Amino acid sequence: MNNASASVADANVHERPPLDDVMLAMDVVDTLRRRERLVERELDEAGREEDLKSRLRRIYEQQGIDVPDHVIDQAVAALNEDRFTYKPAGSGVARRLALLYVSRGRWGKWVGGGIGAALLAAVVNYFAFVAPDRALPGQLAQQFQSVLAIAADDDARNAAQQILNQGQAALARDDTDAAKKAVERLAQFGSALAQEFVIQVVNRPGERSGVWRIPDINQNARNYYLVVEAVNPGGERLRVPVSSEETGETQVVDTWGVRVDEATFDAVRRDKEDDGIIENDRVGYKKRGHRDPDYDMPTSGGAITQW
Questions:
Q1: Do the domain assignments include residue 112?
Q2: What is the pLDDT of residue 13?
Q3: Is 165 domain-assigned?
Q4: Is the pLDDT of residue 57 over 60?
């Protein structure tokens, strides 16, 4: 190998020292740092650097370690350049983000729990409130079509249309409560239309078959009512919605009072007093699909639910 090749080889060795040399140089630097007073004295005085290197050689010779000169040179240079020294990163955004990522084990479960709770609340809110409200227009239309499928006359269809209009008006003004009530009213109206029953006077021991009331607006008059019940073709007593002319409220009842004239009331009373049995107890008949029953006895159609 010629001199030029040797020089290049030496340069490469110095540029990229073996790992063992690097580790040894780091150890030398560590030794220098531990002997801080020696370093300060030798490096601060000009021309004393060689003495420092000699002292280092003796220190390692005493330990039985052979440290090449170039390793000592590298260590002294590294000490001057402050290499092999940990320098913490600055306090920039990247460092803060890195610290957050490293500490995710501590805060991650709380953040994850909070996000999970928020997602759960959002899901519950959607299915409990948002989704039902969005379904209201379809529910209103569906209930209306169900009623039309049962309705057998224009009176029933017009009543259903009126409830539908009220529900649609509520939707237009974002009044979901009123729209829900309209859906419920259509469902109840459809159930009432589907019923078929005989209206007959109650004729059981211990129960009244008729009552009379003195109206508030005319203390000299009397209103007469036959106490009736609804019985389907199978003989089952039904609960039906009845609107009271006294309170204006509609209640689902199993007995109610139908208003009749005095002559009809007296005729039923005499029929019952004759032998304790009312022979002519049929007051009317409610057909499926019809809103109101057809009456066999004279009546104004007024009713009461309490007496």
A1: no
A2: 43
A3: yes
A4: yes
Helix segments in the chain, DSSP class H: 3-15, 19-34, 36-44, 49-62, 69-81, 93-102, 104-125, 131-150, 154-172, 176-194, 262-275
Contact 28, 77 (CB under 8 A): no
Distance of CA 249 to the CA centre of its chain: 35
Classify residue 103: in a domain, yes or no: no
Shared domain check, 75 and 11: yes
Q: Does residue 76 contact residue 31 with C-beta atoms inside 8 Å?
A: no
Domain boundary among the residues 144, 173, 194 is at 194
State the total domains in the chain: 3
Count Cβ atoms within 10 A of the Cβ of residue 7 and give its class: 0-12 exposed, 13-18 middle, 19 or more buried: exposed
Q: Look up the domain containing 141 and give its range.
A: 119-194
- Rounded Cα distance, 105 and 112, in Å: 11
Is 215:301 a contact under the CB 8 Å cutoff?
A: no
**pLDDT per residue over 269-286, tens digit each?**
999 998 888 999 999 999
Q: Are residues 54 and 148 in the same domain?
A: no
* pLDDT (tens digit per residue) in 151-182: 999 999 999 999 999 999 999 999 999 999 99
Give me the pLDDT at residue 225, please: 98
Q: Are 28 and 72 in contact (CB under 8 A)?
A: yes
Angle, vertex CA 114, rays to CA 108 and CA 119, nearest 5: 120
Mean pLDDT of the chain: 81
Q: Establish if 290 belongs to a structural domain.
A: yes
DSSP, collapsed to helix, strand or coil, labels residue 285 as strand
